[in-house]
Design goal:
The chain is α/β, with parallel strands linked by helices. It has 3 domains: 257 residues, Alpha-Beta Complex (2-enoyl-CoA Hydratase, Chain A, domain 1); 176 residues, NAD(P)-binding Rossmann-like Domain (Rossmann fold), CATH 3.40.50; 93 residues, Orthogonal Bundle (N-(1-d-carboxylethyl)-l-norvaline Dehydrogenase, domain 2). The protein is built from 30 helices and 17 strands. α12 crosses α13, α13 runs antiparallel to α14 and α28 runs antiparallel to α29. Bound molecules: 3-hydroxybutanoyl-coenzyme A and 1,4-dihydronicotinamide adenine dinucleotide. GO terms for molecular function: (3S)-3-hydroxyacyl-CoA dehydrogenase (NAD+) activity; enoyl-CoA hydratase activity; isomerase activity; NAD+ binding.
């Protein structure tokens, strides 16, 4: 980002037919025209210059970048240096004696839109997107957005935009724009005509702050209803309630006091741990694409055609991602029957989206037309990328990769969706291990945003770069990880399931623990999740890893016994919980508690009352500890990558920023001490499973954070 205010804002004068001048002020701060210190200084200087120039009759604020502005410069937040404050820039704009017209040549978000709201007139094109996404950063629009938007757009519309953070097309937003042109190419010429008209009509300065909100359109009931409507998705977040209060202030208070109230609420949000976490996550998500394995000079392969092996749960969802992005996909199964079943399921998924109004019937057909089924490997000869999603068995994967090596053209990328198997061993089935890579999608693959890109020992930088970039095209957030059992996400989740089972043996009721984890912010607790996914999935993984667990006779013993009794979860109507026919509501089952009691007795484990805090620590801290081991081993390159995996792959609450940010927030010493405490208190079990990772120990002793690495 540029530091020089002269470079950050451009100033041009344009002579009008009546001899007067129009001042054009362009923000110039790539990549997103953030309102950095330099831009704020530049805006003040240029607006003052235009106001002082008698020949200037009106001022335009716009940009020559693709965005009007992405808002305040978030990277400056940590510095605490807000001088000159954005509200002061807007004050200068709103109180200027000459009309200032915002010409939104591209998206305007946050402070960017707030600049426009403070101008006296606004012009844009119909498809342009504007929004106040501050809530996603754990804050609220702090430069008058909560006071000006309700005045222009009405309270209901403003409330929705500010609390959801969702961008809106200009054509859908009433009350904000004075002119919305259909064709973006005509925006500047039509804006100039508009400015001339404003000048010709007396250069009237129309201040947003002078608009009075009709309180009858914003009664208490509206706010009460709104609070109810967002309660579920706002659970645990700090900012949404403050956003609502700020909009309430726009109705209840005169403009200046409203601004003051907005300022107080903004500060409260800014100082919250939720804001720290959400801002951390904003940068974590973007940082995931900054990897050291390639650089700008690394070539990227062109991916035009994709092959998928296996049309099961994962193969079908993966195929949909590519069809959604307009890429033709060939799906291969060994038997026609399995192929038909897989393709029919994809169609049903699309049709169900169409029923919900998310797709048109024509779009369903377009996407289905991109999907070809085959049982013949010869049809994969010309694909640029093939993703294998067959049974999780090394022999089967080997067979598939051997065949792919024979049939696929040179340079085709051969990817596996394996969730646990050794990618290097899979690659060894081919004569081109440099072209083999892991693409670990999460279920449902057409919905979940996360993609773990697994680099094998020989995966080439070119292949890694191609897949990382392709992820964006199919609307995924890719995180690059190394090879180990379960990679990052599933390796860490192992301790989560193990500890949940152990806690039940020690006397915790499943619904108690599930409530603690739900209250922490995950969508559901481990037992509900296990029942929903199917308890048999973990069972089969454990069966193949007996060597890993043989030293601990209590290891997931309850889960194993339940599966052996046919209690595999929701699909069987019983798992850890019982389920009434057709219902997904878990019902606690005393039989399960009795089983836990018997097993505890058999294993010599004393059942006791366990506090919520202990439950939380024993579930979350070992997961963080595993994250530390993963960092030490270089399986993840940075702690923020683990956070991205956990938020997008496992529903870890974004207002906690991910497990590693959560650990940094509460302090690594706290985690280290608790790990030592449980190691010492839980006998042999503790000795085995609660050994703090050396990296955790080191950072805790140095008073450092994972983010400092
Ligand atoms: N401040 C600082 N840096 C920003 C930024 C911002 N507002 N917005 C984006 N960036 C950076 C990103 O970190 C990224 O950096 P990198 O290349 O080093 O990783 C780079 O700009 C490009 O960002 P994206 O990859 O996200 O680019 P896209 O083109 O995909 O998306 C965007 C552009 C839609 C503007 C998206 O970046 C975005 O949503 N930005 C945040 C918008 C926002 O939340 N604005 C409100 C800011 S808070 C505010 O205005 C407070 C005010 O009310 C007082
Ligand atoms: P699935 O059993 O639903 O589908 C596998 C499909 O592959 C079946 O349709 C089967 O007929 C087909 N198949 C088997 N052998 C084949 C062969 N030799 N050639 C062509 N097709 C063949 O399994 P699922 O769940 O889709 O898993 C597939 C892979 O994805 C596994 O490696 C699994 O570990 C991984 N995975 C699964 C996730 C999940 O949640 N189900 C999540 C992430 C990865």
């Amino acid at each position: 980002m540029k530091q020089n205010s002269m470079e950050a804002v451009d100033y041009e004068l344009q002579k009008q037919s009546d001899g007067s001048q129009l001042a054009l002020v362009f923000m110039q701060n790539p990549p997103v025209n953030a309102l950095s210190k330099a831009v704020r200084i530049g805006l003040i200087a240029n607006i003052k210059q235009a106001l002082a120039d008698e020949s200037v009759k009106a001022i335009v604020i716009s940009s020559k970048q693709s965005l009007f502005s992405g808002g305040a410069d978030i990277s400056e937040f940590a510095s605490g240096d807000f001088e000159p404050p954005l509200p002061a820039v807007l004050d200068l704009i709103e109180n200027a004696a000459k009309p200032i017209i915002a010409v939104l040549n591209g998206p305007a978000f946050g402070g960017g839109l707030e600049v426009a709201l403070a101008c006296h007139y606004r012009v844009t094109f119909a498809a342009n997107k504007v929004g106040l996404p501050e809530v996603n950063l754990g804050i609220l629009p702090g430069a008058g957005g909560t006071q000006r938007l309700p005045r222009l757009a009405g309270v209901a519309q403003a409330l929705d935009m500010i609390v959801s953070g969702r961008p809106v097309a200009a054509s859908k937003l009433s009350g904000v724009f004075d002119l919305v042109v259909a064709d973006p190419a005509q925006l500047f010429s039509e804006s100039l005509t508009f400015c001339q008209k404003v000048v010709a009509e007396g250069a009237v300065v129309r201040r947003t702050c002078d608009i009075t909100i009709d309180a009858s359109t914003a009664h208490a009931e509206l706010f009460a209803q709104f609070r109810l409507s967002i309660a579920k998705q706002a659970r645990g977040f700090f900012a949404p309630e403050r956003c609502i209060q700020a909009v309430e202030a726009s109705v209840a208070l005169p403009f200046v006091q409203g601004l003051q109230r907005e300022g107080e609420l903004f500060l409260e949000c800014m100082q919250s741990k939720e804001a720290r976490a959400q801002q951390h996550f904003f940068f974590a998500e973007r940082a995931a694409s900054h990897v050291k394995d390639y650089d700008k000079t690394t070539p990227v392969r062109d991916i035009q055609k994709v092959g998928i092996i296996g049309a099961g749960t994962m193969g079908g969802g993966i195929a949909m991602n590519f069809a959604n992005a307009g890429l033709p996909v060939t799906v291969l199964e060994l038997k026609q029957e399995a192929l038909d079943k897989g393709l029919a399921l994809i169609r049903r998924n699309y049709e169900s989206s169409a029923k919900k109004g998310k797709l048109t019937a024509a779009q369903v057909e377009q996407r289905m037309a991109l999907l070809q089924g085959t049982t013949d490997y010869a049809n994969l000869a010309d694909v640029d990328l093939v993703i294998e999603a067959v049974f999780e068995k090394m022999e089967v994967k080997h067979e598939v990769f051997k065949t792919l090596d024979k049939v696929c053209k040179p340079g085709a990328i051969l990817a596996s969706n394996t969730s646990t198997l050794d990618l290097n061993e899979i690659a060894s089935a081919t004569k081109r291990p440099q072209d083999v890579i892991g693409m670990h999608f999460f279920s449902p693959a057409n919905v979940m945003k996360l993609l773990e890109v697994v680099k094998g020992e020989h995966s080439s930088p070119e292949v890694i770069k191609t897949v990382m970039q392709l992820a964006k095209k199919i609307n995924k957030v890719a995180v690059l990880v190394g090879v180990c059992f379960g990679f990052v996400g599933n390796r860490m989740i192992e301790s989560y399931g193990r500890e949940a089972n152990r806690l039940m043996l020690e006397g915790v009721k499943p619904e108690q623990l599930d409530q603690v984890i739900y209250d922490f912010g995950l969508p559901m607790g481990p037992f509900t999740m296990g029942d929903m996914a199917g308890q048999d999935i973990g069972y089969f993984v454990r069966q193949s890893r007996q060597e890993f667990i043989q030293h601990d006779p209590s290891y997931c013993i309850l889960a194993d016994k339940l599966v052996e009794q046919g209690r595999v979860g929701l699909k069987a109507g019983k798992g850890v919980y019982l389920y009434a026919q057709g219902s997904r509501t878990p019902i606690p089952d005393p039989e399960v508690l009795e089983l836990a009691k018997q097993e505890a007795q058999r294993l010599g484990i004393k059942q006791r009352e366990i506090s919520d805090q202990e439950m939380l620590e024993r579930i979350i801290f070992p997961l963080i500890n595993e994250g530390a081991l993963i960092l030490e081993e270089g399986i993840a390159a940075k702690s923020s990558d683990i956070d991205v995996i956990y938020v997008y792959g496992y529903g870890f609450p974004v207002y906690r920023g991910g497990p590693m940010q959560y650990a940094d927030e509460i302090g690594l010493k706290t985690i280290y001490d608790a790990m030592c405490k449980y190691r010492d208190e839980l006998g042999e079990y503790g000795q085995h499973w609660f050994q703090p990772a050396p990296l955790l120990k080191k950072l805790a002793a140095q008073g450092k954070r994972f983010a400092d690495l």
